[in-house]
Design a protein that fits this description.
It is a single chain. This protein is 64% helix and 9% strand. The protein has 162 residues and is mostly helical. A hairpin with a 2-residue loop joins β2 (67-72) and β3 (75-80). α1 runs antiparallel to α5 (96-102). 18% of the residues are buried.
Length: 162
């Protein structure tokens, strides 16, 4: 019997972006980029909400009167209003970034770390690789993609025969 599905990080993020923003703004005013970076730091790199989820959430919080925005050093900085402080203070349970970290199993966490290491190598390669190294890398990436889909399909035939 297969293991029960684990909620995806996208599902977790959507439910926690608002709470994370309120929690961070309860500490001090911040701009959107600072909040994205701080969530990533506090979650150990497991959760890095996109600007496409953070900025609409901030706009919604502003529309609801929970945050106010102002300019500081050329950046839009958000701070909690009195209503926002009350909303942030009413939250119970673990911090949103802790919930995300606790919701990920050890093997999936390791897989994300490996993906990050691969991305780092890829970026380095795009800057310094020779034409031959680029060709070898493209071949490896195509093969790796095929193998990953073979794994997802449950095809145990490593020769690729189906």
């Amino acid at each position: 019997m297969p293991a029960p599905p684990i909620p995806s990080l996208l599902q977790i993020r959507r439910g926690n972006v608002r709470a994370a923003l309120l929690a961070l703004l309860a500490e001090e005013p911040r701009n959107g980029h600072q909040m994205i970076e701080e969530i990533a730091r506090r979650s150990g790199g497991l959760w890095r909400p996109s600007p496409g989820s953070v900025y609409p959430s901030l706009q919604q919080l502003e529309d609801e009167g929970l945050v106010a925005a102002g300019e500081s050093a050329g950046a839009r900085v958000y701070r909690l209003t009195d209503e926002g402080r009350a909303a942030a203070g009413s939250r119970t349970g673990p911090e949103p970034w802790t919930e995300v970290a606790q919701g990920m199993t050890e093997d999936r966490h390791e897989m994300r770390l490996l993906w990050g290491q691969l991305a780092e190598a890829f970026i380095h390669l795009t800057h310094v690789a020779t034409d031959e190294q680029v060709a070898q890398t493209k071949k490896l990436l195509k093969s790796t993609r095929r193998e990953m889909f073979r794994i997802l399909a449950g095809d145990d035939d490593e020769d690729g025969d189906r």
